[in-house]
């Protein structure tokens, strides 16, 4: 079945450091891929998405490229800020799945220190 | 403001006492769903609804019921809660079902069953 695997957290970085959070997926078809962010005490918000191979999603300085050959969608940011501290979820949606549900990874907590 | 509203935010209850978690969206979305979030497991879909009076089971539906009598509301019902239903619950809505569509999440309901 479909699944998403994310790197274990927590990830602790100093402000202005480079961020990479790894995400790989398993899917039978051609899924859409998402990164959602959950700030403390809040619900999930869409950070970026990509709907086909080689698409790059970007938002708020974050980027991720849909790599079909490596089944990956790694999240990157060149210079993190304290305000980026949150839990990040990689997710996929399979158009062949009649429930249209999102399948989430386990989440990666990011802590950015001043 | 476009939003998904869940109530209550926090709930502590006893085993077997029926409860309802409400969810309402003001974006005229067709598709709504419920997820539970557990440590190390990410979010898993409980139930979903494609439109009014159309609901179906997700991946973890045991012990839950839903209804969709109006487009904006999608309550989650626990007829006889048990401790293994202690979790963080999220309601989500999207304009339509299908890959690549952004899901909007409520702020979550933290349920503890003792």
CA-atom Rg of chain A in angstroms: 14 Å
Estimate what percentage of residues of chain B fall within beta strands.
over 45%
Whole-number mean pLDDT of chain A: 94
Distance between the termini of chain A: 41 Å
Helical amount among residues of chain A, as a percent range? Answer: under 10%
Sequence of secondary-structure elements of chain B: EEEEEEEEEEE
Helix/strand order of chain A: EEEEEEEEEEEE
* CA-based shape of chain A: globular
The chain pair forming the largest interface, with residue counts per chain, is: A-B, 24 and 27 residues
Strand runs of chain A, count:
12
Rg of chain B: 13 Å
Helical segment count of chain B: 0
Largest sheet of chain B: 7 strands, mixed
Number of strands of chain B: 11
Shape of chain B: globular
Topology readout:
The complex is a heterodimer of chains A (114) and B (114).
Chain A: E1 3-6, E2 11-14, E3 19-21, E4 23-26, E5 32-38, E6 44-50, E7 56-59, E8 62-65, E9 75-77, E10 86-93, E11 102-104, E12 108-113
Parallel strand pairs in A: 2-12
Antiparallel strand pairs in A: 1-4, 3-9, 5-6, 5-10, 7-8, 8-9, 10-11, 10-12
Chain B: E1 4-7, E2 10-13, E3 19-25, E4 31-38, E5 42-51, E6 54-57, E7 65-66, E8 76-78, E9 87-94, E10 104-105, E11 109-113
Parallel strand pairs in B: 2-11
Antiparallel strand pairs in B: 1-3, 3-8, 4-5, 4-9, 5-6, 7-8, 9-10, 9-11
């Amino acid at each position: 079945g479909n699944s998403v695997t994310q790197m274990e957290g927590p990830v602790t970085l100093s402000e202005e450091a480079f961020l990479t959070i790894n995400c790989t997926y398993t899917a039978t078809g051609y899924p859409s891929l998402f990164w959602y962010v959950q700030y403390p005490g809040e619900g999930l918000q869409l950070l970026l998405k990509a709907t086909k191979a080689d698409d790059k999603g970007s938002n708020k300085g974050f980027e991720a490229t849909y790599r079909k050959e490596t089944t990956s969608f790694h999240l990157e940011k060149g210079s993190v800020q304290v305000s980026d501290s949150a839990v990040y979820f990689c997710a996929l949606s399979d158009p062949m799945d009649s429930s249209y549900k999102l399948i989430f990874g386990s989440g990666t907590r990011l802590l950015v220190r001043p | 403001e476009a939003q998904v509203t869940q109530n209550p935010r926090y709930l502590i209850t006893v085993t077997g006492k029926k409860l309802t978690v409400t969810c309402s969206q003001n974006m005229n979305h067709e598709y709504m769903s419920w997820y539970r979030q557990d440590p190390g497991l990410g979010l898993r879909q409980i139930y979903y609804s494609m439109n009014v009076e159309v609901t179906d089971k997700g991946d973890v539906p045991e012990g839950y019921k839903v209804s969709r009598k109006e487009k904006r509301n999608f309550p989650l019902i626990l007829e006889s809660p048990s401790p293994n239903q202690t979790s963080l619950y999220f309601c989500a809505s999207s304009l339509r079902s299908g890959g690549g569509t952004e899901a909007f999440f409520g702020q979550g309901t933290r349920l503890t069953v003792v």
